[in-house]
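Hi V.,

You were right to ask for the full record rather than a summary. Here it is.
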Amino acid sequence: MVEVGIQSVTLIGRKNLQVMERVRKAFLYFMTPENINNPFLHLKVRFLLLRLLLISFVLGLGLGIIQATRELNFKPQVLNLILYIFVFGLLCLWTLADFKRFRIHISYVIGRLPNNHRWLPMVGLVILLILFSIGSYLVLFYLLSLAAPSFVDTILREVAKSPTPQKAAPLLSNLLGAIVLVVVAPLTEEFLFRGIILQRWASKWGIRAGLIGSSLLFGIGHANVVGLSMVGMILGVLYIRTRSLMVPIACHAMNNSFVVVMTLLSSGSRTVWAMNRLEQLRHSLWLGILLIVLSLPLLVRFLSQNWPRKDAMIPYFINSFEKES
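Predicted structure:
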């Protein structure tokens, strides 16, 4: 019985190896740059960015005309939230139209939620990302303030006006801000950056270049470039490892939930906070360094243990092969 069991396990192992070998060969076939069977070769990131600018311009112009002609006065925070929802919502819908045109299956992009996934370590990972983001923010803007204090002061004031929930703000405004940060932003940004841009650039330049490039672009889209690039890197690795877009979406939502809670618990007016922020920033250098020292080694360890192989497949193709087999 034992020998039969061992032979059965060996046979299953051989079959798995044969399946993996067929998957690898199919991947190499699909990933050939000149092969038209890779649908992500038809998607262009530059067109995605142009659409973002076009939608933002049209919606901004339309809201400006409405306010001028009807003498309406929207609150800046509410206006920014509404614009974000419509801009990224329309951009995702436009991209889904490309999916239909290029025969890209949305289910292969999203993937399935892994069975028995360990969520508790994800909480610790998110906390490390928050610590690193705060630390890199303090150090980066401290260094920038030495060379261009007025520029940093302007950025800090704009950050203070960002549409995050505020303790003294109306309930409806805070509720809308929380929905955008915890629901809309994770869904739309993960779909665009991890689901589309990462896989497009991975198809063109390789999985590692796609991961790094999409993470840097994600960081550039936020005020804290260094901190959010690390966030994008971790979320990209999670997507590649789990092949499920729901995992980075959940971590992104968890990260933003912490931000919402910390903002609501903070006391004082954000306007006054922004006015004194530049001076406070210059006294927070050592705090930033401490946070980086505490978080960066563990984040680097996570990346080194989960860094994708050079010939690793993008999640879309693995999900499609598993579905078809």
